[in-house]
Amino acid sequence: MDRDEILGWVADGYDLVCDRYDWDRDSWWPNEMGDQSKATLWALATFVTAAKARCVGADLVAACGMGDGASAKKKQALLSEHWESHTVHEKRGVQNTEILVDFSVHYPEAASPIQFTGESEMFMRHGVGDRMTTEDDYSWDFYKLLVVPSATRLFMARVGTLDGVSDVQRCGDLARSLRTIVDRFAVTYLRPHDEIGAFIFPSGKRIYQESWVAWSDRGRLRLEKASPWGS
User: Fold this and answer.
1) Sign of the CA dihedral with 15 first, then 25, 8, and 122 last
2) Residues 189-223: tens digit of each pLDDT
3) Cβ density class 18-40: b for 16+ within 10 Å, e for less
4) How far apart, in whole angstroms, are the C-alpha atoms of residue 106 and residue 37?
5) 54 near 152, Cβ under 8 Å?
6) With 70 as the cut, is the pLDDT of residue 229 above it?
């Protein structure tokens, strides 16, 4: 996993939800509190895109907690259309359950059955520290990705302005907090060939270069501004 792969999955996920729900891809951005469910769908589409690129096996099962109501129906429809497959050579199914993280892909026959995990946090007013408390809920969600053994792990977060600190500043602060968490726990939870990545974006404006992308490299988390993607 590298920077360009992550940004490609994010851009493809964005295009997928814009096409599926008829959102204007030239202007749509989840910049309101009420856009949390839409941002979560974008994250799910990104996870599905990445999992299809990474996961191998004849009988793969995606586990995803759907929730209730209209949001659940949209998740089910997205997974049905873009993940499930029942061809002669491969069978991809879906389970309405959550294995600690939002999305995971399992190949039961493998020695290490969890091939992919994805976790998103689209409530935009959590703290961006590294304490893994309720206040710093982004860091707790990221930590869950470390705890669950998986070959490929992807995190996505929407960050808003809070207490006079801009969404742009808080995105950078969160990226650095994630790097601290990896420094602290990678030796315990990341196996030599595991990969972990993250995409962190500001809720208030569609400025691509103010988003951050992170990916693991020899046990550490590399951070870069995203720069324009999807243009």
Assistant:
1) negative
2) 999 999 999 999 999 877 778 899 999 998 899 99
3) beeeebeeeebbbbeeebbebbb
4) 25
5) yes
6) no
Q: Which amino acid is at 108?
A: P
Give the type of residue at 158. Answer: R
The tokens of 148 are what? 């669950």
Q: What angle do CA 140, 146, 152 make, to 5 degrees?
A: 125
| Residue pLDDT, tens place only, 156-182 | 999 999 999 999 999 999 999 999 999
User: Which residue has 């994010």 as its token pair?
Assistant: 10
Write the CB contacts of 130 (distance below 8 Å, at least 6 apart in sequence).
Answer: 136, 139, 177, 178, 180, 181, 184
User: pTM of the full predicted structure?
Assistant: 0.94
The distance of Cα 9 from the centroid of its chain, to the nearest Å, equals: 10
Which candidate, 70, 110, 114, places its Cα nearest to that of 95?
A: 114
Three-state DSSP state, 193: coil
State the Cα–Cα distance between residues 155 and 47, nearest whole angstrom.
9
